Amino acid sequence: MSSRSHLLNDRTAETYRRSLTAGVERVAQRIARADRPFTGITPAQLAPVVSDVNLEEPLGDPAAALEELEKVYLRDAVYFHHPRYLAHLNCPVVIPAVLGEAVLSAVNSSLDTWDQSAGGTLIERRLIKWTTDRIGFGRASDGIFTSGGTQSNLQALLLARDEACRLAEKNSTTPLRKPEILPRLRILTSECSHFSVEKAATLLGLGPEAVLTVPCDRNRRMRTSALAAELERCESEDLVVMAVVATAGTTDFGSIDPLPEIADLCERAGTWMHVDAAYGCGLLVSRRRHLLDGIERADSVTVDYHKSFFQPVSSSAVLVRDETTLRHVTYHADYLNPARAAENSIPNQVDKSIQTTRRFDALKLWLTLRIMGADGIGELFDEVVDRTADAWRLLSEDPRFEVVTRPQLSTLVFRYVPHPAEGTALIDEVNLHAREALFASGEAVVASTVVDGSHYLKFTLLNPETSLSDIAAVLDLIAEHAGRHLTEQHGLPGRTDPSAAQSAGRAGGAALRHTQSGPELSRRAG
Ligand SMILES: *Cc1c(COP(=O)(O)O)cnc(C)c1O
């Protein structure tokens, strides 16, 4: 086949149809067949398969390439639709959005300018408006789709920084330049906020000392009394708080900072309030919308549709209450978006973005809303939040585990605790081991994190197909791996399952030390 036959155009529509259908068929088979979220393959095993592919020798036809793709990718990929994938904030996807993905890459609109997009631009703008309405922003609001929460946070903080500089210049009696203001800028955010806040501060030319951490209460929500004290301290030291970043759904705990109180403090201090709702944005369409009360008072908001709206990566947005603040990212290029286009009301979205060429990710959300509707998304999210509350009950009644907080959203941070209680180092070790062993088995995938210096395990539930019995089964697997490790490596007993523990408790207690795997124990004894 000639190279030109691979170009998608009027003469190749049939090839396009056949190619895509073959690809869809492969994926459908894989998804239908996956009996576990992962095969457990290691980087060392998979790397040679990929490096053995000779990129100088094309296969020529899609069927052969798809066949090859089975072993370099599809066979060992991590499958998020599987109910025992419980690790990260990457969601199972809804079919309307996947349809959108196929359409948008074939048409290949680029949303930087109207003359590369047309309707795509209007659809994106409509969805930005839809989102700001859900947030409760007024008519002056605006925003833009981005590649993810990291980029949304960066852009929001860039706008906050430039607003802070503008105000500092305006209020100064002596002429001030931006480089003189930058060292005085501070960002206040809770100890549980996302690391992209620090990354953004660095990218924005601020030093590592620019991000001040506000402590959280025991539910991992920002302590507003500490925030108030920190705002006062900054003021007395002639520092400029350019933004307070509140988190609506922390990555580890799903905790939501007290938004109304934070809004009051920001208003009093005249400080930009950013709400990072990368994870919690699903509440915008849920019956728990009240958990976001106060978000409408923010100056900017980050939402990740690719986390709690069941959209494929990537799909995110940054929203601002005052559209004029977006001018801080407006640059005109003669070849692309000349100033006269803006004067003639040609909607060039690049004027509001830190990207230039940009995907039409909004189409996925559009088709999702048009096919299943916002309530449909909200129902799915509510279901995982309900399930997490049930799972919390399960965990908190299970003597094998201890759980950190009662969740507001859909994560659970917990750890396996040996009995009798062992030193911290050993608890860390068995929990890390359990996670790795489980990952290597491919039977389930869970995450790990660190809380107050200790290693914990984490479930992030985003799949309504995950049942309580899936969760119970994964807990058993974790306890099995942890118990086996204790026995094999340390000669210690593992813990019983909860029902056995309860009967042991009724029988008088001490029987909690049980022999998980007899052969290993007797080997040690012998
Ligand atoms: C995931 C997450 C981010 C980063 O978003 P990406 O889409 O991964 O770039 C930011 N903030 C919070 C609270 C998150 O959970």
Automatic annotation (TrEMBL):
Residues covered by region (Disordered): 488-526
UniProt cross-references to Pfam families, sorted A to Z: Pyridoxal_deC
Keyword presence, Lipoprotein: no
Entry annotated with the keyword Protease: no
The entry's keywords: Decarboxylase, Lyase, Pyridoxal phosphate
Ranges of biased composition (kind: Low complexity): 499-511
Gene3D superfamilies: Aspartate Aminotransferase, domain 1, Type I PLP-dependent aspartate aminotransferase-like (Major domain)
UniProt record similarity statement: Belongs to the group II decarboxylase family.
PANTHER family noted in UniProt: CYSTEINE SULFINIC ACID DECARBOXYLASE, GLUTAMATE DECARBOXYLASE-RELATED
Designated name of the protein: Pyridoxal phosphate-dependent decarboxylase family protein
